Amino acid sequence: MKKILILLIITIPAMILYAENHNKKISPYKGNWPYYSKKDSIKGVIELNQIKCPRALGCECDLDRDCESGNCLKLPKGQYCKPVEGTRIPRFRLQDQFGDLVDIYDFYGSGKYILIELSAAWCGVCHELASWITYNDTVITEKRFWKDEYKQIKDMIINDEIYFIHIQFQDEYRDNATQQTIEEWYSTYPDDKIPVLGDFNRAVHTLLKPTGLPVVILLNDKLEIVQYSNRGFNHTFDKLIEIYN
């Protein structure tokens, strides 16, 4: 009897430890994106579809004090509450190029910085950026806004030092993106390190208010904004390189 009890005392904790580690290693996604089994227990996370105006991120405002973030941003089509450094991205789930519904909070706690690109199939520079990452096409490197040190960004993606997430909200005709839109994008730029997510109802677009594509935003592994942009990627790339150097 004593032997049986001792065996149970030793084995049960070992099984629990194995299960926890097992969940961290096995991804339910066909793309083998990261999977965080404890994401539902993260405190202080707001669901994107539960955001209510006024004062919340993306809501209309007149003054800084109208926003929880304390930052009212003037855009061509109005003024909206803008995220600031440390603002945590609301939780959302978008379908990827393989048809899986991907939870952004599965990227939580990875120890890696995250680049989120907001894009559209009609965006020429978005194609050039994707072609540079996937095929080392140099067209984008000839633009006046390009910097030679941005090569480090691609090296970080290739070496799995960071995550790069491509989110597409419109097709080539400027209609809402569909599953076919993101599958065609992946077929054109088949990089297995990059999730291609479809913002089919433009919820993420409405939240982050891009005004010039592509837009790239930098997050830490707690899904907090390190560098926000609503136009372009220079400030974000510069910030990431500054951090790494």
3D architecture notes:
The protein has 245 residues and is α+β, with helices and mostly antiparallel strands. It has two domains: 36 residues, no CATH class; 157 residues, 3-Layer(aba) Sandwich (Glutaredoxin). The protein contains six helices and nine strands. The strands form two sheets. A seven-stranded mixed sheet has the order 4-3-7-6-5-8-9. A two-stranded antiparallel ribbon has the order 1-2. The longest helix has 24 residues. The radius of gyration is 20 Å and the shape is globular.
Keywords for this entry:
245 residues; alpha+beta; Glutaredoxin; 2 domains; seven-stranded mixed beta sheet; two-stranded antiparallel ribbon; 9 strands; 29% helix; disordered N terminus
Low-confidence regions: 1-24
Main β-sheet, spatial strand arrangement: 4-3-7-6-5-8-9
**Average pLDDT metric:** 90
Helix content: 25-40%
- The gyration radius over C-alpha positions equals 20 Å
What is the highest CATH level, the class of the largest domain?
Alpha Beta
Shape by Cα distribution:
globular
Number of domain units = 2
Number of strands: 9
